[in-house]
Amino acid sequence: MEILSGRNLTVLALALAALAAASAVRVAVSGDLRVAGEGAAGPAGEAVSAGRRLVLAGAAESSGDVTAALAHYRAAVAVEPRLVERGSPEFLGTEFEDKVNAWISGLKGGKIRGGPTALPDASYLFRRMYGGCG
Amino acid sequence: MIRRMFAYPDTALALALFGGLFGVAAILLTALGNPAATGLCASCFLVNVAGALHLHAKASQSYLRPEILGIVLGAFFAAFSSREHRVRGFASPVVHFIGGAFLLLGCEVFIGCPIKVLLRTAGGGAVGLAGLAGLGSGVVFSTLFLRDGFGFRTKAVLPEAAGLVLPAAAFLLLLGASMGSDLFAAADFGGGANHAPFAASAAAGLFFGAAGQRSRFCVTGSIRNAALLRDFREGAGTVAFLLAALLLNALLGKFSPTVTLEPGAHTDFLWAFLAMAMVGFGAILVSGCPFRQLVLAGSGDLDAAAAVAGMLVAASFSVAFGVGSSPAGVTGAGKLAVLSGWVFFLALAARNRKGGPQVG
Questions:
Q1: Which end of chain B is more exposed for a tag (fewer CB within 10 A), N or C?
Q2: pLDDT tens digits for A81-92?
Q3: What is the pLDDT of residues B124-166, one digit of tens each?
Q4: Interface with chain A: mutation pick from B147, B189, B230, highest number of A CBs within 10 Å
Q5: Residues facing residue B326 across a β-bridge
Q6: Measured distance CA(B196)–CA(B66) in Å, rounded
Q7: What value of ipTM does the predicted structure carry?
């Protein structure tokens, strides 16, 4: 490690700092600095209330479109996190909890066919529902 | 002999015992109501405390965590009773303030401090493991600079009264919280609403602080000593923490190996790694991870107190500007914070070495 000492180490540190600074500038100009956060606009891109999202999710579920249902549930939760908060009166209930778990195992096992966003959306709902300090 | 082992733990066995107790206490706090894998997390809890003190307005992240106040008080009592309470500082308060702020922001991007890295790994989270790998890499990288003479000016000895301010504030806040004061914001949902009973949290905090002061428990410090000095005694404490948490999780049915279903986590391996690498690197430069800064601050180190102040300010900044990650992923502001932290710590490491000018 002799080579990584003295002036060489200073040069390495400054080169890495320059790389980090350049990457930071890239992030800053990428337009990815919105504070709003979790894709509340949902699949169609428009801002819709959580209640409306739940209606849309129910309709998609009834028609057998699991991918769309999960996308609407995810958007609803992004707007109103209490929907997956067990202690909250807004909690969608253990029935919903069981449904999410069933969707995950069905999508993973291939028993349920879904689009590319279905499993990530279901996993998001799971991660939201079962923890976090946020 | 047993008394000496607890009062002056310096053997691998004693430090492993302390580490194991830390792990057990953290898992029990989760079982008692703290959020998943968050039995003890200095960064998450500091964000909660910042919310409780109205430093940010996110209700779900507001709760005056007794663990944090207990850590400061426990460290103070332990240091005082062992005559190790020495008020010192002013070696680099500004650097510690900014450094502490970046440590917290890095933890917010990963979602957890170095202790929570262990807890997330012990719960089976693959992203937690990526964070652990990042943390270790960052610490090992920092040892290159330590070997090459990185350091701050010698700390000055300061009046005893200056070291009493933070413990006194922690005591008053703990007293206020125990009396159910409505001065403090408190969450009715989300992470802030999930907590163990007040008495259990306060007792655990006092234990973490006192035991942390006696054993010098520090995840990043233990990796540094192993890499730099080939001294594995503190590492025994960290490994014992991980194993105890793993074992207890397995017994409680809470161990579940997963890539995408880790409760409360995101799935971005790269940014988990980079964020914790920055935290590991920076923590060594400013003498400790967020937990260690709290312990040092309680023990009279005013540079560490500056770091704690920086972390509290960063907590409000994190919420206001969307730096913290969520199960939805890492935000642009979070990536910017991690990269800025790297720039800061690398510039500091390049500058503050033997023969070079010392930033204070």
A1: N
A2: 889 988 788 899
A3: 999 999 999 999 999 999 999 999 999 888 888 999 899 999 9
A4: B189
A5: B329
A6: 10
A7: 0.88
